């Protein structure tokens, strides 16, 4: 049961583990991983049933306005270059993104009060596997919103379903995207810490982080669109500033989810 003790305990953990500084570190690695990931995804476009416009539309749906505009311009720049970027994109994405996962692992180990005792190669291999899984999930999450409607219309036509089904499916496909994000967080909180955990122990943090990512992204996007004047204040780098703040908030929520799981694990061990 969540009470005042829970909020006091989480607040103490935020201060003791210096979560804001860890979130800033994680945002830095997120930023380093983002552009190789964009190169990788854009290089894959000829082999996937999606277009550049689909990718840009997804960015505008999920990212704050200034950030989406900045990333859209980056995609356009990549597309104007030669097509020999795929292998570079794969290697750069795996290396830089696995550094981000390593930062997550260190933050979770700190939350659970454990040290990293796994061999370097094993820890790096785990980070790369988690990175590949996250890239795969990202692509699935991209395909589902873009082509979910087409799939629903196909099922509607083939099986003679009522028109209400299409409305239900349009809502369901967004829920499936939400579920994919929840699955990623569950696996991350379960596998990343250097501590033997049950899968169920990762659920509280996964629920919090999934909801937190959605709420913060939507709320921050609304704020930037209606009240933020980053472009006016910072000029051309306004999009970068918005991107960094967005990544910082995402990193903070991710680490806080791990702290929530560690708090409940500690309470259970002390009972």
From TrEMBL:
Superkingdom classification of source: Bacteria
Keyword match Endoplasmic reticulum: no
Keywords, alphabetical: Cell membrane, Membrane, Transmembrane, Transmembrane helix
Record-linked Pfam families: Virul_fac_BrkB
Matching InterPro entries: Virul_fac_BrkB (IPR017039)
Predominant location category: membrane
GO CC, any one term: plasma membrane
Entry keyword annotation includes Transmembrane: yes
Cell compartment(s), UniProt: Cell membrane
Membrane topology of the entry: Multi-pass membrane protein
Organism: Mesobacillus foraminis
Segments traversing the membrane: 21-45, 84-105, 125-148, 168-191, 203-225, 231-258
UniProt protein name: Membrane protein
């Amino acid at each position: 049961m969540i009470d005042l003790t829970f909020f006091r305990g989480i607040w103490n953990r935020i201060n003791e583990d210096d979560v804001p500084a860890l979130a800033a570190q994680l945002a830095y690695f997120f930023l380093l991983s983002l552009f190789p990931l964009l190169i990788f995804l854009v290089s894959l476009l000829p082999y996937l049933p999606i277009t550049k416009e689909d990718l840009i539309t997804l960015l505008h749906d999920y990212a704050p306005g200034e950030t989406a505009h900045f990333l859209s311009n980056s995609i356009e720049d990549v597309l104007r270059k030669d097509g020999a970027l795929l292998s570079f994109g794969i290697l750069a994405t795996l290396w830089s993104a696995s550094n981000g996962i390593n930062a997550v692992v260190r933050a979770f180990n700190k939350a659970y009060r454990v040290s990293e005792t796994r061999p370097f190669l094993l820890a790096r291999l785990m980070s790369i596997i988690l990175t590949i899984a996250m890239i795969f999930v990202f692509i699935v999450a991209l395909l589902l919103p873009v082509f979910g409607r087409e799939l629903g219309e196909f099922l509607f036509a083939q099986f003679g379903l009522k028109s209400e089904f299409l409305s239900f499916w349009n809502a369901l496909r967004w829920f499936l995207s939400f579920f994919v994000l929840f699955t990623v967080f569950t696996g991350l909180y379960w596998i990343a810490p250097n501590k033997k955990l049950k899968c169920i122990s990762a659920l509280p943090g996964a629920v919090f982080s999934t909801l937190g990512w959605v709420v913060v992204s939507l709320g921050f996007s609304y704020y930037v669109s209606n009240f933020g004047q980053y472009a006016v204040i910072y000029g051309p780098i306004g999009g970068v500033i918005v991107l960094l703040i967005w990544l910082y908030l995402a990193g903070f929520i991710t680490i806080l989810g791990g702290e929530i799981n560690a708090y409940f694990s500690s309470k259970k061990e002390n009972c």
